[in-house]
Design brief:
Blueprint lengths: L2 H9 L7 E4 L8 E6 L8 E6 L20 H11 L7 E5 L4 E5 L6 H5 L4 H22 L15 H20 L5 H19 L3 E4 L8 E3 L9 E3 L6 E4 L2 H7 L8 H15 L3 H28 L10 H14 L4 H10 L1 H4 L1
Antiparallel strand pairs: 1-2, 2-3, 3-5, 4-5, 6-9, 7-8
Helix pairs in contact: 4-8, 5-6, 5-9, 6-9, 6-11, 7-9, 8-9, 9-10
Length: 345
Amino acid sequence: MDIEKILRDYYGRDAESESFETLKADASSRKYHRVKMPTGFEPSSLIVMELPRDPFASDEVTDWPDPVELPFINMQKALKERGVRVPEIYLDAVQDGSVLIEDLGGTMFREKAEGQTREELAAWYTAALNFLTGMQEAMTPAPDECMAAHRRFTEKMLRWELDHFIEYAIEELQGHTLDSGLRKRLQMALDEVAAGIYSIPSLFVHRDYQSRNLMVLHHEPQPSSLAVIDFQDALTGPRVYDLVSLLNDSYMDLSENLKQFFINRYADITGSLRSEIHQEFHLVAMQRKMKDAGRFVYIDRVKKNPDFLKFVEVSFSRIRSSLERLDGHEDLKTVLAEADPGHFG
């Protein structure tokens, strides 16, 4: 990728960057670079999203046709049209392996929330929750030209994520495969989890609505102070999925009291029964943290990136916490204790 050429395509023939910084990578296959331009160029700062060789490929199982438009661009247009604050796209240079987007600054929600008093933390999470419910309302139903209108969580996808948990978070970490009978019992118990999640009422889901994907634009804890990024995997799915991502974020340690408060607040805002939302929340939270634990080990073993291993035990702790609060699923609790006594015994 020739960044200077792409900058000239956007700014004009005389454009030349003043500084160039590659931002810290996460688990994504994309890379991001912050470019500063000399005085007189507007915007004076922007982000170059460097795409992988095959920007449409995924290493996760999906249940829909391959996209014909880069999902990031498709979703950005739909969200912007519905009034959701997202980064502007300055130049679609997919053919050259990049997209030029708005620089929203360097303050993530995670960084803003750390070190705050309980009252300040609650104010920022209230802003994030209100941003979420506003986005859900604006995007449900998703516009027909939006990919999220045609992609939805299916039981097949949920089961793949749960099998990923078995393969990497249990078998790979323990260093051996499970006995076939035990593995089948565990899969049957997780089938009930997938079916339960699939039955939850659906709406627009960002799919990774957490503290690293919310950018803080202003200092006041208001929804208008936030913008959302990393929305290319959006789909239609369980109504509590993004709430789980926000409150059960691996990168933040929110107290159980605050979690319960915001689960109730979400139920009240959306006109739902608190008891139903609590059960849905913990069912999805358990499945989501199972997926996370599996992905974190997979990223280490397969992608050779150990940065996320420190969050594996956090994920197991969140799984246990949700299991304790779930009604039923006794078979799952029993077979997990047999399959992984170190974490569930």
